[in-house]
Amino acid sequence: MTAPYGSWSSPFSPASIAAAAPRIDGARFVGDEVWWGESVPAEGGRVAVRSSTGAVVLPAPWNARSRVHEYGGGAWTADHDGTLYFVDAADQRVRRMPRGGDPVPLTPPGPAHGGLRLQHGRLFAVREDLTSDPHRRGIVEIPLDGSAADDERALTVIVEGEGFYAHPALSPDGSRLAWVEWHAPRMPWQSAALVIADRDRRIAPATRAALQPEWTGDDELVYADDPSGRWALQRLRLGDGSGADGDRSEADVRAVSAARIDADTGYGLWVLGNRWFQPLDDGRIVAVRTNGRDDVVVVSPDGSARPLTLAADGHVSVDDVSGSRVLLSGSSSTSAPGVWAVDVDSGAVERIAGGTPADPAWMPTASVLLVDGPHGPVHAFAYAPRNPEHTAPDGELSPYVVFVHGGPTAHVTGASSAAVAFYTSRGIGVLDVNYGGSTGYGRAYRERLDGQWGVVDVDDVIAAARGLVDAGLADPARIAIRGGSAGGWTVLSALVRGGTFAAGISRYGVADLRMLAEHSHDFEAHYIEGLVGPLPEAEQLYVDRSPLTHADRIDVPVLLLQGGEDRVVPPAQSEAIRDALRSRDVEHEYVAYPTEGHGFRAAETIVDALERELAFLGRVFGFTPAP
C-alpha cells in the first residue's frame, strides 16, 4: 500500500514497546538454574529476580535496586544453593532471602548499598552514607548471620572516605581485597586507581582509569586500564615487597595481549554491576571488545584471541562463569535484549531470557554512518523506514528523528530495538549519533568533549543530520531531534543554534548549567567542571552555553517530558524552558510524570510518552499517524 511517510500502520504499539523494554540487571549460575534481574514495567519498573525454571525468585513488592552513586547497579547476587542477597529500593538495606523463605535484613537502616559481591562465602558491598557531613562512601564486608542488621559495628569497614569506590574483589585465599577508587574532581573514566589491601599494606600500582579487578590466583589479578588510549586487559603479579626499590617487587604489571587492539574492554563506570570480562579456571579470559559495536572473544594465556559467534553485540556484560560456560547479558543488532549461556569450547549458545530474534521484515538494520564534522569524524547508526506493507509515494523523502544519547560519556551500539522500530515501521527514520565525547571509540574520542560540552556535541549531531541530507536519505525540512538527560541538553542547545531541526523532544533535559551544578548529586558534582570549566572562574561560560540563556532563539515546536522525582535533573530545568517558550508563544507541550525519576520505568509512562511523541511529530511534520 502506498501511503505518506509517518502514516503507515504498525504492529509496534506504545503498549507493546513498554512490555518489550525490560532492563536486564545481571545474571548468575545458581546450581542447575540461571537467575537474572529484570525490570517489570507493568509493576512500576521494579526489578524482579527470575529463574530459568520460570519461577519469580524475588516477587513483588520487593524491588532489587540500588541508589549508590545515584545510578546504582549490582543490587543482587546469589549463592549456588539459591540464597538471594539483594538491596531493596525502598530502604537500601541488604537482605538475605533463603530459597522458599522470607527476606531478612543484613544491614542497619540509613546508608545505601550496591555493587554486591559474594565471594568465597563472604559478602562485600559498596556503601554510601548521605546522612553524614561530609558524605561518606566505602567498601564493607557484611556478616551473613544478620548481626549487623541492628548493630553497625558488626560490619567490617574495608575502606571509607569522601571518594568513590567500586568492584571489590577477594583473592582466592581470602588474604587480599582489591577495588577501584577515584576522587573528585575526576570521573572514573578520566582517572581511577586500582588498590589492593594486602595484609598490613596498601598497594596501588600506577593506573590511568582502572576497571574491574578479578583474581586469577592468590598473587595475580587481571583488570582493565587504558594506558594506550584504549581500555585493555592488564595482568598484575604481586611480589613480597622486599625489593630495594619496592615497586617492581610489589606489583609487576603487563598487558595481557602484546598487540594493540583498536577496541575497548571497558566502559564508563556509571553503574556498579557491569562486567566486561571473566577469567576461566584454565587461564583463558572471556572479554568484550567495543569499537562502536561489541565483540566477545576468548583470550588465550598467550594473548591471542578467538571470537565467539553470538547475537549479543551491544552493551554486553559477562556476568558469570561456570566451567566453560559463561553468562552474557546485553542487547543485539539481530534480536531483543536478553541473557545467553555460552559454552566457549563447543560454541553452543542457549537463550535464557529475552533475545527473541528480530523479524527482518519489520526491524530496521543499523547502517554505519561516518561523516566529517568540524572536530573530526562523527560516528552514527542510521535506521531507514521499514514496513513490508507500505511504501511511500514516488519522490517523497522520509522524515527523520535524530536520537541523542545521555551521559554524555556513554554510547549507542546499533542494537535492534522495538523503540526504534516504533518510528521506522511508521515511516520515520532514526539516526542514532555517537557524538564526540561518547565511549566505545577510545580515550581521544571521549576527550573531544572536554571543556566543549554544548559545542562539540551540537556540532556533531548537526553534521550527522546534514550527512543524511547530503546522502539523499532525509527530507531536510522534516528532521527532529530527541534526547534525554545530557541528550536533552544537546537537543535544546541544537534548537538554540537553529537552522537544522524542525522540532525537538527533550526528556528530562538539562537547560541551565548553573542550576545543574547547584543541584548535582555527589557522583556528578564535578563532572560538569571537566565538560565546561571550574566554578566560579567559568561562570560566564556556564551562562553563555546554557540553552535557557538563549531560549529566545528557539523558534520551532518543543515537547518537554519530565519525571517529578528526578534528582539528577530536577523538574525546575524543564519548567524553566517551558516558561521561556510560553512567554514567547512558541509551540510547546510540557508533561510531568509525578512518580518518575531520572528515566521512565512505569509502563503507563512509557506508553503515554510515546503516544505524545508520535502525535507531536505528526502535527509538526504534517502527517496523520495511523491508529
Sheet-strand content, in percent, reads 35-45%
Structural class, judged by helices and strands? alpha+beta
**Largest sheet descriptor:** 8 strands, mixed
CATH topology of the domain at 367-621: Rossmann fold
Unreliable parts: 242-249
* Radius of gyration (Å): 24 Å
Q: Mind telling me the CATH class of the domain at 367-621?
A: Alpha Beta
Distance between the termini: 16 Å
If strands are numbered along the chain, what order do they take across the biggest sheet?
29-30-32-31-33-34-35-36
Total beta-strand segments: 36
CATH H-tier superfamily of the domain at 367-621: Alpha/Beta hydrolase fold, catalytic domain
CATH architecture group name of the domain at 367-621: 3-Layer(aba) Sandwich
Characterize the overall form.
globular
Oligomer: single chain
Could you describe the 3D structure shown?
The protein is α+β, with helices and mostly antiparallel strands and 627 residues long. Among the domains are: 275-357; 367-621, Rossmann fold. The chain is built from 11 helices and 36 strands. Strands 29-30-32-31-33-34-35-36 form an 8-stranded mixed beta sheet, with helices on both faces. The chain has a 4-stranded antiparallel beta sheet with strand order 1-2-3-4, with no helix packed on it. A hairpin with a 5-residue loop joins strand 27 and strand 28. Helix 5 (456-470) crosses helix 6. The longest helix is centred in the C-terminal third of the chain and has 19 residues, at 603-621. The chain is globular and about 70 Å long.
